[in-house]
Amino acid sequence: MATNAEIERTTAASLRSFTIAEGILLLVLGILALVFPVIASAWVTVIVAIAFLVGGVVGWVSNLTRARRLSRWHCFWRLVISTLFLVVGVWIIQQFSAGPLAAGLQVAALAYAVGIVFVVEGLVSTVVSLSHTQRNGWGWGLANGIVTLILGILILSMKAWGLMSVLGILVGISFLFSGIDLLAFSAAFHAADDA
Question: Nearest 5°: CA angle at 51, between 46 and 57?
Fold first, then answer.
């Protein structure tokens, strides 16, 4: 029969192996997204469409099962939002099935929306950090706000082809850093176990 220490070592080894595999997978996906940013952008857009569809269906089911506990007004608006999720999800998927031009417009529209979100987030982060200069670390918030604002402005100033690759590049960079983080974290597990 295995002792608690053996079970712990086996569990830690399994977790370490899984973390390393996840890190390698994210590195590979990140590199692929950076090498093929337009394809990665299209995949991100399709995943967003699927998320909208799932969100819409779950919203409808949730609202209808809780309708007796919600006010009619609240239930109505939640159903409206769930319906919008469904409509947008179906519309994005229809655009992808309509051909490359329509699909490209969806990818560019989503990238443009990301640019708007980045500009707003950058402005808010900048203002919040500048209003808290007496706190430690406010400079990091300011740096984050400025970088996010600049990225948003760059995205919004891009031509259509540039917008086609924005989502793929962002996902690629995110996956690369996540992969590196996981591998570094796993390496820390190795060092701790070996010591």
Answer: 130
Asked if residues 146 and 126 have their Cβ atoms less than 8 Å apart, the reply is yes
Name the residue range of residue 47's domain: 18-194
Convert the pLDDT of each residue in 92-134 to its tens digit: 888 878 788 888 888 888 888 888 988 998 898 899 889 888 8
Number of domains in the chain: 1
Query: Would you state the pLDDT for residue 54?
Result: 94
**Per-position DSSP letters for 123-184, written without gaps between them:** HHHHHHHHTTTTSTTHHHHHHHHHHHHHHHHHHHT--HHHHHHHHHHHHHHHHHHHHHHHHH
User: Which pTM was predicted?
Assistant: 0.69
Q: What is the largest CA-CA distance in the chain?
A: 65
5 within domain boundaries: no
CA distance 155 to 177: 21
CA distance 123 to 145: 6
